[in-house]
Design brief:
This protein is an alpha/beta fold and 351 residues long. 20% of the residues lie in helices and 26% in strands. It has seven helices and 17 strands. Strand 8 and strand 9 form a beta hairpin. Helix 6 packs across helix 7. The model has no long low-confidence stretch (mean pLDDT 94).
Length: 351
Amino acid sequence: MTAPDAHVRGTRTSDYDFDLPPAQIAQLPLPQRDASRLLTVNRATGAIAHRMFSELATIIAPGDALVLNTTKVMRARLLGTRDSGAAAEILLLRPLANGTWEAMVSPGGKLRPGRSVRIADGFDVEIVSLTERRTRIVRLHVEGDVAAAIERHGHIPLPPYIARADTAADAERYQTVYARENGSVAAPTAGLHMTDALLAQLDARGVRRVDVVLHVGAGTFKPVEVEDPALHPMHEERYELSAESARTLNHIRETGNKIWALGTTSARALESAVRADGTFAEARGETRLFVRPPYTFRGVDKLITNFHLPRSTLLMLVAALAGYDLTMRAYGEAVDAGYRFYSYGDAMAII
């Protein structure tokens, strides 16, 4: 019998440490989106296989649903100068009421309420107030259309482990080919591997495409800093499941087919929207859902995802579906086999 205070593997943050050679952190995308590798993990047998993402249409069965997060990455990183002439940075997180935004700023100690940052001629950011979680409420002062000014002067917010400035190529490649709704500060990275041709192959095979929206926030990069994951504060993220998507998913359930989430963001949207009986209805709102072991999935059967950082909430989500031991064994094999990690890296499928 397990002692009451025994450590259950996968329930502590330190369980999700792993060693990764820095050279395996992908700094650039591959020339072809679907040329990435795909590590497949079979939950029933524990078997791990090495495939290519371009083979995805042979892995998903006809009649199954593939759920895509159609969020679009904003040019949310604004680079400018303070009144002193020193450099400053504003990362827009989400729009709020009365034309204000929640944002992260740097340097935080210098950008107190009342200060401003000049982004360009006719484009200034005013620091309005400080939030409880140390972000800022800011107001954009723009001559003309605000969205157009952000698009013109903003930068693609590459994640912090990509150690370079964004380029013109990132504006296309750090965006899925099916992105539509503007609102994310990070890409739903499993979808970066998808191409129009591969989507056409899936359509021809009879795989049902289902759209959801979850606008990815900066909290996706925040490591879990407490040993008990239950104490980790999750940032809210806006999501939406349309009535049409809900009907399609319910049909998939009724016919006994499977629901595949393309990415952890699609998975979180589905698990936030699914009802207790496993059915779906139109839903929208903000979610702080933290999926970690032990967790029973009701909306997702299978998952395609990139490789995630140690101690991250996303790695814990993967372990909740695949099982902790199998997940960490798969990560160890991916490291040993030289897989490319994180946003521009390779992918894995939990089947």
